[in-house]
Design a protein that fits this description.
By secondary structure, the protein is α/β, with parallel strands linked by helices. The chain is about 35% helix and about 15% strand. Keywords: Endoplasmic reticulum, Glycosyltransferase, Membrane, Transferase, Transmembrane, Transmembrane helix.
Length: about 240
């Protein structure tokens, strides 16, 4: 069984394009090893409880937070996820019809379906995390619309070829066709707030943190710093 898992992962490691779903067929085998580890941990009740309920729980807990928002609070609002791809569950945890479709969006990570150069290809999350502040200034309005209209083109479309950049006279550079409206709720990892100018920009737009789950040291790369919910409260104060 261990050899089958190792062989499968090794073979797929040589593929130019990798996705988690490629190794779904060996998931039952991985569950066997995970179950063995949980049984071993169960000898220490406190450690077992910690591993099952508190370790890296932010991505799950944030969906519980959204699911419990009052229905009247979601009728005229939107939620945006500024996180790496597949960082949180979706409707499998929410079960909220009022949040289906365009009221809740995430950055896309579509593979290169048009035979682009794999060495230079960038999906939407790559473009965002290359320079988050620049992305927010380019693809979001200069001010928040308190009516929270739906975003015209917030993310790449699953299953369709990736969006191609074009030259913008306004910005005097090549940009992609994505276009956002500021949502009432932003979901992000704390690491994003450490990037140059991001926290100042969000606070300047009137956002503030209202919820947090997880530990600062958990996660890896762009998923560090715990999961945060920032909510728009009021326009920025001007002197």
């Amino acid at each position: 069984m261990f050899r089958a898992i190792t062989w499968t992962i090794l073979i797929y490691s040589f593929a130019g394009h990798k996705e988690w779903r490629f190794i779904h067929p060996i998931l039952p085998l991985l569950h066997v090893f995970a179950a063995k580890s949980l049984v071993d941990l169960s000898t220490d009740t406190r450690m077992s409880r910690k591993k099952k309920t508190t370790h890296w729980n932010g991505p799950i807990e944030v969906m519980h937070y959204i699911r419990q928002l009052p229905r009247h609070d979601l009728n005229q609002t939107t939620i945006g996820f500024l996180v790496p791809c597949h960082s949180t569950p979706g409707q499998s945890h929410l079960h909220r019809r009022d949040l289906a479709g365009e009221r809740m969006w995430q950055l896309g990570c579509e593979p290169p379906l048009q035979h682009q150069n794999l060495a230079t290809y960038k999906d939407q999350t790559d473009v965002f995390f290359d320079n988050p502040k620049e992305y927010l200034l380019t693809y979001f309005p200069s001010q928040v619309d308190p009516s929270f209209p739906l975003s015209p083109f917030p993310s790449s479309i699953p299953g369709q070829p990736a969006s191609l950049p074009y030259f913008s006279q306004r910005f005097n550079k090549s940009i992609y066709p994505w276009k956002h409206e500021w949502p009432q709720y932003l979901i992000l990892f704390g690491d994003l707030l450490q990037q140059d100018g991001v926290q100042v920009l969000l606070e300047g737009q009137g956002y503030g943190e209202v919820w947090k789950a997880g530990r600062e040291w958990e996660g890896e790369g762009k998923r560090k710093g715990a999961v945060r919910v920032w909510k728009w409260a009021s326009p920025p104060q001007t002197n």
